[in-house]
Amino acid sequence: MTGRRAIGSTDVLLVVDVQNDFCPGGGLAVPSGHEVVPLINRLAQRFEHVVLTQDWHPPAHQSFASTHSGRKPYETIEVAYGPQILWPDHCIQATPGADFCEDLQIAHAQLVLRKGYHRHIDSYSAFYENDRKTHTGLASYLRERGLARVFVSGLAFDFCVRYSAEDGKREGFDVLVIEDACRGIDVAGSMDATRRSFRELGIACMAGASIG
Ligand SMILES: [Zn+2]
Asked: Is pTM, for the whole model, over 0.85?
């Protein structure tokens, strides 16, 4: 955890995938995922610039176990770009599961960035899809708007938050993760792997209370 951070006009709050399917009762529920909402709502009031990401898959997406006969959720398969964990169906375009949590109230959010809409490529990161080549456009958007420091929050800590934070750092942004504004899934040690990776890359984890 790091010291107190004043928020300014070149800072942005990135709110990752706070959608019904990632909350209890949803298709790919993150344990206690809904608990991040009140804190994220409060934090958002401190930021002039807020970007929301929205996982947004077509039906029969390659990342769904149900798309592959004989496969179960959380198995890993090889696809064109390497290993891919198979997930329960989630965040299918224009279904209630893909909607933002009803309690998420950030009317001043400036951009809703959808990801995962290519049937054959999953997208954990808000910056690149999982082939590591296809850009979402977020890096250019942030640069063109003069936004330099990215505070990351949302779901899940060890997947979409992790990859968004790492790629933001690689793209040259100053990245901080607001850890208590995230919840994780923990598949095969993914929480520990995330913390290790953040340490190696110099990505600071902080508490929401230290944003002043
Ligand atoms: Zn997804």
From this structure: yes
